[in-house]
Amino acid sequence: MIDGDIFGRINALSDEEEQLWEHAGDGHGLTAEEHARLETIKVELDRCYDLLHQREARRAAGLDPREAEARPADIVEQYQQ
Predict the structure, then answer these.
(1) What does 2-26 look like in DSSP terms, one character per residue?
(2) How many angstroms separate the CA atoms of 71 and 5, rounded?
(3) 77 vs 21: CA distance, rounded Å
(4) CA 51 to CA 70: how far, in whole Å?
(5) How far is it, in rounded angstroms, from Cα 22 to Cα 34?
(6) Number of H helices, E strands in the chain
(7) Can you tell me the distance from the alpha carbon of 42 to that of 55, in angstroms, rounded to the nearest whole number?
(8) What pTM does this model have?
(9) Contacts with 53 (C-beta within 8 Å, 6 or more apart), sequence order
(10) Is the pLDDT of residue 15 over 90?
(11) How far apart are the first and last CA of the chain?
(12) Residues 68, 54: contact at Cβ < 8 Å?
């Protein structure tokens, strides 16, 4: 996966998230499934950004960014902010 692919995934997830919030904002609210989907999108976005940061760090260290791997959600979601 290259950076462009990751950015494409981020854009697609962000678009879906925006559509869900637009639907909720027109008075319909969110269903349980939509709430669950928003949580899934949040986690997947975090994983994408983590992968981009790994790739950037590998580049900065003179290493091959292609060796960066997406980390599991349970690891990424435990990071301290």
Answers:
(1) -HHHHHHHHHHHHHHHHHHHHHIII
(2) 16
(3) 22
(4) 5
(5) 12
(6) 3, 0
(7) 20
(8) 0.88
(9) none
(10) yes
(11) 26
(12) yes
Nearest to 7 by CA among 43, 64, 41, 51: 51
Q: Rounded to 5 degrees, what are φ and ψ at 64?
A: -75, 115
Phi, psi of 29 (to 5 degrees): 70, -170
Burial class (CB in 10 A: 0-12, 13-18, 19+), 70: middle
User: For residue 34, is pLDDT > 70?
Assistant: yes
pLDDT digits (tens, 9 = 90+) for 19-28: 999 988 888 8
Angle between helical axes of 32-60 and 3-23 (0-180°, round to 10): 160
Rounded distance, CA 11 to CA 17, Å? 10
